[in-house]
Structure formats: structure tokens, C-alpha cells
Amino acid sequence: xxxxxxxxxxxxxxxxIGPYSAAVRAGQFLFSAGQLGIDPASGEFVPGGIEDQTRQxxxxxxxxxxxxxxxxxxxxxxxxxxxxxxxxxxxNGVYGEFFTENxxxxxxxxxxxxxxxxxxxxxxxxxxx
Length: 129
Description:
By secondary structure, this protein is of the alpha+beta class.
């Protein structure tokens, strides 16, 4: 692969809402864009609250990882952006359904505002399979 980057198109995840890629492969790593709790079929946020949006964001992240040649098991680092840090416990409960062992490193921060008014956005760095 060398020093070039490869753009990943993830057909099973929502389309990018700006001039960016769903993920980029570089070296032995895959760097994902942040994933929101948007249903790829409708282009709208899933109904419900933080738990539903977290679950959908992680499903979208999983689709991006798989399209790029990785998986949730290959994730070494995530960053979770929350609209409200009071939602941390609820987000963390759903997050624990997807990452059950050999946990990746993680940062979680409250953002002043997320794209399209989302409640949570999750990005990852993963090893390629």
C-alpha cells in the first residue's frame, strides 16, 4: 500500500453530507469520518433518543469499517462526541453492546453542536484486516 491513501465508499452507511470521505485507508490503518445516528435508507435520524442514535451511529460505523476492510474488532481508538455529557451513561450502555472485550481506547467529549442537530457522533481508527 505504501504511502498513498485510499478513499472508502460505504454504500451501507449514510452518504457524506459534505466534502469528505466515509473513511480513508492509509498504511495499515482505516480512519473513519464521524458517524451520526442517521438511517441510511431515509437519510433521517432514527426515532428515539440517545440510545437509538448511538446504536445507529455504531451500526453505520460498522458498515464503514467493513467497507474499508476492517471491523469493530480492529478498532484501536474511538472518539465519541455528545451533544450533552449527561447522556454519557446511556451512550456507554449501548457502546458496550458493540465493544465487549479488548476495548479500544476512547475519548468522549461534549460538543457545542453536532451536524444536523445529532445527539451523538462516533469516529474510529482501526487496523486493516
